[in-house]
């Protein structure tokens, strides 16, 4: 009996000792971490919504507190995503009814925003079915992109932006001041410049809904650590391409995840620096049974450089030489098209353009460029994104195209349907134009 009591006491002492150690360990470890699905407290960003009455900054800091409240809400919202598949549903009168999410990243873009907003208003897809989301990120100190987007967006939703921009353009003409960066216009193809002037001077003559407000405008502000300059020479240097594209991939993924809603059927990505683009571009890209569709992107050049040039070489068909090249590269190397360091010998959408070709001709693509992408929203919901890391020796939009193809989605391009990117004079171009101007002045004196 005494032996049994002694054994019981030993057992109780052991359990007491073990319990004390566990309690001390719990004290050292602290509280259990928050659920993985809770908002990331380190994801600092700002969100502004725009109406005709002005800009409102949303309180994104309350997201963590609201998270726990939402967990216990008894209301449930039901969304039938079969209505957002990008099937191009029609209304009773044959009109489009799908909602489009228009996404545009902006960085140090103040000088091209008038052009961008003109092209935005010029979209003939029903403005009441387009949600706009801008992402302003990594702007230089003193840059006014954000304030300009605020001002333009409020005027856009008020229906007064067209008049404001016309007044600003007239004031610029009256001042009769032409900056060095604008001298290149004197050396551009005259037919092209006439086409640009027609597009910007009388848009309402062929688009009655030009001034119509959009369904919504949201402006996100978040930095991603992009330090590569915005000059043409800076952005297109081969040594920075991999870094730049991975950061752009992060930015695109963040904006998609932040702005995509359940009722969006399509996502249209557009770069800010497009000069001319058909107003029907969304409908024209929609009408094909493809999950991802891109147009051809060219840019004008001064006549002494040939007048025009393929711009976006990131839309291409895969080749055996490129696949063999990838096998010889390090895992983290990013293949960059158009550079001698990476001889891929791929078929580029830009190089098979025929100015007289059928604009409805489609070719299947593997990689795509990011200047103008229309994609069905369902592909993002099913996991396609813009890889912010090296995937098959590619990143961002080119890796996006390859990933979409690998997941069974159809990726295509229109070789003869052309959108024109703005001409950005390089430093060498500006020096050459300055030499030509000096030569003209000397000739006038003699």
TrEMBL record:
It comes from the Eukaryota. Coiled coil: none annotated. Keywords: Signal. Residues 1-20 form the signal peptide. GO terms for biological process: cell wall mannoprotein biosynthetic process; protein N-linked glycosylation. GO terms for cellular component: mannan polymerase complex. One of its GO terms (molecular function) is alpha-1,6-mannosyltransferase activity. InterPro entries: Mannan_Polymerase_Subunit, Nucleotide-diphossugar_trans. PANTHER family: MANNAN POLYMERASE I COMPLEX VAN1 SUBUNIT, MANNAN POLYMERASE II. Belongs to the ANP1/MMN9/VAN1 family. This is Vanadate resistance protein. It comes from Metschnikowia bicuspidata var. bicuspidata NRRL YB-4993.
């Amino acid at each position: 009996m005494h032996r049994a009591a002694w054994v019981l006491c030993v057992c109780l002492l052991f359990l007491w000792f073990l319990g004390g150690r566990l309690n001390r360990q719990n004290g050292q470890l602290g509280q259990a971490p928050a659920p993985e699905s809770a908002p990331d407290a380190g994801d600092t960003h700002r969100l502004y919504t725009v109406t005709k009455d002005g800009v409102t900054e949303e309180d994104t800091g309350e997201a963590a507190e609201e998270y726990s409240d939402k967990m216990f809400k008894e209301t449930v919202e039901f969304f039938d995503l079969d209505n957002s598949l990008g099937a191009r549903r029609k209304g009773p009168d044959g009109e489009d009814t799908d909602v489009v999410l228009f996404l545009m990243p902006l960085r140090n873009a103040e000088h091209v925003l008038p052009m961008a907003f003109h092209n935005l208003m010029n979209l003939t897809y029903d403005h009441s079915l387009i949600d706009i989301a801008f992402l302003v990120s990594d702007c230089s100190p003193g840059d006014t992109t954000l304030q300009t987007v605020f001002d333009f967006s409020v005027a856009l939703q008020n229906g007064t932006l067209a008049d404001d921009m016309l007044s600003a353009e007239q004031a610029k003409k009256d001042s009769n001041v032409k900056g060095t960066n604008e001298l290149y216009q004197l050396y551009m193809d005259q037919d092209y410049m006439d086409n640009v002037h027609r597009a910007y001077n009388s848009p309402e003559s062929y688009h009655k809904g030009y001034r119509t407000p959009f369904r919504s405008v949201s402006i996100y502000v978040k930095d991603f650590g992009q330090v590569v300059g915005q000059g043409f020479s800076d952005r297109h240097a081969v040594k920075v391409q991999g870094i730049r594209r991975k950061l752009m991939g992060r930015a695109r993924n963040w904006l998609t995840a932040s702005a995509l809603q359940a009722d969006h059927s399509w996502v249209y990505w557009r770069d800010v620096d497009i000069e001319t683009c058909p107003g029907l571009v969304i409908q024209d890209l929609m009408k094909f049974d493809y999950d991802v569709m891109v147009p051809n992107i060219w840019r004008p050049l001064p006549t002494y450089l040939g007048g025009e040039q393929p711009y976006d070489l990131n839309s291409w068909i895969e080749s055996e030489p490129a696949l063999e090249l990838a096998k010889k590269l390090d895992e983290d190397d990013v293949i960059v098209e158009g550079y001698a360091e990476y001889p891929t010998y791929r078929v580029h959408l830009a190089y098979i353009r025929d100015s007289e070709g059928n604009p409805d001709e489609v070719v299947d693509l593997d990689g795509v460029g990011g200047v103008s992408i229309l994609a069905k929203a369902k592909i993002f919901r099913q996991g396609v994104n813009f890889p912010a890391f090296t995937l098959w020796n590619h990143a961002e939009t080119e890796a996006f195209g390859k990933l979409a193809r690998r997941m069974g989605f159809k990726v295509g391009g229109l070789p003869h349907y052309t959108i024109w990117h703005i001409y950005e004079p390089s430093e060498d171009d500006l020096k050459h134009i300055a030499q030509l101007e000096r030569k003209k002045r000397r000739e006038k004196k003699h």
